[in-house]
Amino acid sequence: MTTQATGARSLDLRTRFYEEIDPLLDAFPDVDVVLAVIGSGYLSRAIERHPGRVIDVGIREQALIGVAGGLALAGRRPIVHTFASFLVERPYEQVKLDLGHQDVGAVLVSAGASYDVSAGGRTHQAPADVALISALPGWTVHVPGHADEVAEILHREAEGTGRVYVRLSGQRNSRPHPVDGRLHLMRDGARETPVVLAVGPMLDTVLEATADLPVRVAWTATPHPLDADGLRALAGPTPVLAVVEPYLEGTSAAAVAAALADRPSRVLHVGVPRDAELRRYGTPRDHAAAHGLDPAGIRGPVKELLG
């Protein structure tokens, strides 16, 4: 991993993103950062050292994406940041047109995840963000589970040209893992043992939920495009699989079905339920429990899958 940040590095994913901006701007002269107020208070050093390269458009999320599209057309590499609901849902038409239809690249980096800002109400919750981005052609989605993974992904994608969505969460795993786009086996077992695939920051929760269950546990930080070859190699000829995602349940269903289309399979998707509309705003932990994304909530469906 290449990073030039100095001092103790934060374990919080969002804070680590802010810490990496100044060294990113040093390392990549074609990178600009585009904000819609959120995050600007954390970037005073980068703003001072790189005048004109941290652009705050104000609370104008459609303009946020439009400015990024214009920068990309001019040969710049924009890194665009705000909460997920304001980065993906509110300016979705601009993401589709100003970036996708114009066929230019950018790195969208969200915070807030599905319900990190639970006290902010439904306006600040975005469990459908990965499903929406995945519906557009040409995007890569990274869902890191550790601050070191955030740094590695940022530096790699800053020198790329593609359209990339990086989803940051308040939830995190205890240690980093390879962010190479592939599936990685984290707990092994017999070849015929069912597989539980954890996405991003769900890994430690899945390991706890399945500690005494006869399953293998795999992990990826890049659910889109999904590592189909890796999934097929792990799943075997008659797959029994659970996919645990920190966003809308079934977001990866089409990709999993395509990867296993020639095999008789049983697949469970665990995520934020599609019929869930919580109208009482507790803590993120309360929301995880209510949505079945805490260890107990994951354990029950996986045991049912085992039969």
UniProtKB/TrEMBL annotation:
It comes from Isoptericola hypogeus. This is Transketolase. CDD domains: TPP_PYR_DXS_TK_like. It comes from the Bacteria. InterPro entries: PDH/Transketolase (IPR051157), THDP-binding (IPR029061), Transketo_C/PFOR_II (IPR009014), Transketolase-like_Pyr-bd (IPR005475). Residues 11-176 form the Transketolase-like pyrimidine-binding domain.
